[in-house]
């Protein structure tokens, strides 16, 4: 007989991990399922070394540190976090949720909290003819090791948080750092832009990259034009060209699952307490959609406890509401 969990949480990004920890604080039978071999979701995959400034009491911590701390917190009550568990379908059978895992295995739960983010994602590409050829030869979309830029000349492309944060960090290590953006204004956090203004990063705006060639000495020659024109205005020579144009998602496979819920363009529509239309099913983090929702880790940290408490009330109305953790007798 398959075991029935109280709550299964799908997605071990920061929001799913914290929701799992909170559920274990409330002493229910919970597990977190993660499709990938590693936990941490987008933070681990896309920006492990970038600093995050908008998480309470953790300002300036890297993505990697944030996930390590969440993992350590989750271990406090032995929360099972099952990696390589990709949920491939979800349906409701006789008041229980049945999750199909990796296309075959079945898991059951009284309530399910979806924390699976925006789905599979891939970086927006630099659209130059020889992009494939240059990939890994100076051109990249990820910066897994910031120390590898020591002494280099680096150009970062883009004007969002990723580009500005990376330019600020790389400037501390590189010989010379450029930030190339198609507008004069950056849409990163204001404090990050202030740091950029104070740094030695040379801004090239409003510019776009028209073409890139590899020099005989292995450096990249980056030809820039004004954003709205197609004539080379200036060329710079760099060792690394780091594109930070954001990410596009390949869609959410959850949209095809066999549960009756409402989706809109931004995600899975929820009401109060992160409830979906299906009783016992909740959505938190970037996957959830309601008016005014902000796709921030901090938002998801608040949504987790709301969903967990609502989930517990749904299958056990007599289970007392949440106390305050400060009054619990925990070593
Ligand atoms: P993003 O916010 O989507 O920014 C992408 C940037 O690339 C924009 O400035 C955009 O220009 C530019 N761009 C896109 N396509 C382009 C093209 N074809 N040619 C030239 N420029 C192009 O992506 P992101 O910076 O990776 O951030 C993704 C999300 O993660 C955001 O919500 C961000 O706030 C969050 N994040 C937060 C932090 C933090 O809190 N510290 C760190 C990293 C990421 P336009 O401005 O002209 O559109």
From TrEMBL:
Superkingdom field: Bacteria
Cofactor note (record): Binds 1 FAD per subunit.
Coiled-coil parts of chain: none
Cofactor(s) the protein requires to work: FAD
Gene3D superfamilies xrefs: FAD/NAD(P)-binding domain (3.50.50.60)
Catalyses which reaction(s): 2 reduced [2Fe-2S]-[ferredoxin] + NADP(+) + H(+) = 2 oxidized [2Fe-2S]-[ferredoxin] + NADPH
Enzyme Commission number, as recorded: 1.18.1.2
Keywords on record: FAD, Flavoprotein, NADP, Oxidoreductase
Domain FAD/NAD(P)-binding: 5-298
Pfam families, A to Z: Pyr_redox_2
Keyword Iron-sulfur recorded: no
Binding-site list for FAD: 34, 42, 47, 87, 121, 286, 326
Main enzyme class: oxidoreductase
Record-stated family: Belongs to the ferredoxin--NADP reductase type 2 family.
Quaternary assembly: Homodimer.
HAMAP family per record: FENR2 (MF_01685)
Name of the protein in its database record: Ferredoxin--NADP reductase
Organism of provenance: Fructobacillus apis
